[in-house]
Amino acid sequence: MTVENPMISTQEFSGSNFEVVLHPLVLLSISDYITRHTLRQQNGPVVGALLGQQHGRQVSIEHAFDCLTIEVDGQIVLNQSWFDERMQQMKDVHKSPALDIVGWYTTLPSAGPQPVHLPIHLQILQNYNESALLLGFYPNFVADGSTCGKLPLTIFESNFEAENQEKVTGDDKNTIKIDLKPSVRFKEISYTIETGDAEMIGIDSIARSGCNATAGINKETGSIVYSKEHQTEPDTNGKTEKINTEDRVLAREEEELIASLTAKMNAIKMLQARINMITAFLKEIYNSNDENDLDDQVNRSAKHIVLRSIQSLLSKLALLVPVDTAGYKEELISEQNDVNLVSLLSTITESIKDVRKVGVKHGIIESSKTVKVRSNNQWGGSSQKLSQRGVSGVGDLLT
Fold first, then answer.
1. To which CATH superfamily is domain 19-194 assigned?
2. Of 137, 139, 58, which is closest to residue 102 (Cα–Cα)?
3. What are phi and psi of 176, to 5 degrees?
């Protein structure tokens, strides 16, 4: 049974129509900080600030940076002086367009925000933004792979709600509701992902460079660290020895191939997860013996909608598989022949070009031989004529 989180509001916020746009650069910054925090085994929570633009209820989250926290009276809060200095530096860098604090991020349990997160949120609300957002990242969803292709994060907006306390007075047991001081409650809001051209190029470059990431060995501990492309183990001298690897940088074609195969692998994994989900749903309906559940009009209507969607999906599978398999194979072979023919023509063209170069060089050599022979004949003929006239030529011996 799921326990309700008292920090999550069940009321409808008045005028709650936030339009949040999230940029991928924020996700990269958060992922990088969480990775460094985990590998370095740092103490304290993962806390960072979100930078962006806000126009009324329209918010764009464009950048993020990690924050330094301190403990005051048993509560975790931001280091105010450090945060103000860092915030001014970020504003100096991002002047056009001007960015400001739109919220903060941290890691959350699956239940959602907890009371321990309130001090930082109240600090940001009071000093920087009265409508600051909270971006919660769920690392446990990433560990067990239960995101089903969705981002393991949620964006919350906050609102002050008055708590009510019921008090029974009098002989007739009248109930009086007393309003206490307002408390902060969170509510999940939807968001969209938006990527700029420069961002897309940067993310693509990061994704490609990730294929060449390597890891070394900690010489103090002597532990073995494996990476995607390199495997190492310590030798007797405590140095790093590479085994079964080739120390080189991947070519661009290899990186593109790896990226393409990775994308296809992720798509196949997602497809398999969705198929398993549909299969489990159908098995549950088939094996269901709960008559009350079957008599429930709402559940039955919902199941019928899902079953109709599954039937519609199955009916579309025939469009993916051609009816005329023989014709499809012939067309496929024809396309392969066309591709091979174009490749062969390209090879022949290159060969003809090489032959022409050889012919030009051969012509130059033959022409130089002809000129040399003519020059020798001219010198030899003049010497013979001079000898016939009684005039000594060059190289004649005098007697």
1. Cytidine Deaminase, domain 2 (3.40.140.10)
2. 58
3. -120, 130
Tokens 């450090």, residue? 82
Distance CA 154, CA 192 (A): 12
pLDDT digits (tens, 9 = 90+) for 141-177: 776 665 666 788 899 988 887 665 444 455 555 555 5
Helix (H, G, I), strand (E, B) or coil at 396: coil
pTM over 0.70: no
175 forms beta bridges with 168
Tokens of 70: 């301190």
Closest listed residue to residue 153, CA positions, set 140, 163, 171, 167: 140
Q: How far is CA 230 from CA 32, 36, 209, 234, 253, in A?
A: 22, 21, 15, 13, 20
CA atoms within 13 A on the CB side of 41: 0
pLDDT tens, position by position, 176-232 = 555 556 688 888 888 998 887 777 777 777 766 655 555 554 555 544 444 444 444
Domain boundaries, the chain: 19-194, 211-243, 252-320
Beta partners for residue 182, in sequence order: 162
239 DSSP assignment: -
pLDDT at 311 over 70: yes
Residue-wise pLDDT for 249-307, tens only, equals 777 778 788 888 988 999 999 999 989 999 988 888 888 755 555 456 667 777 888 88
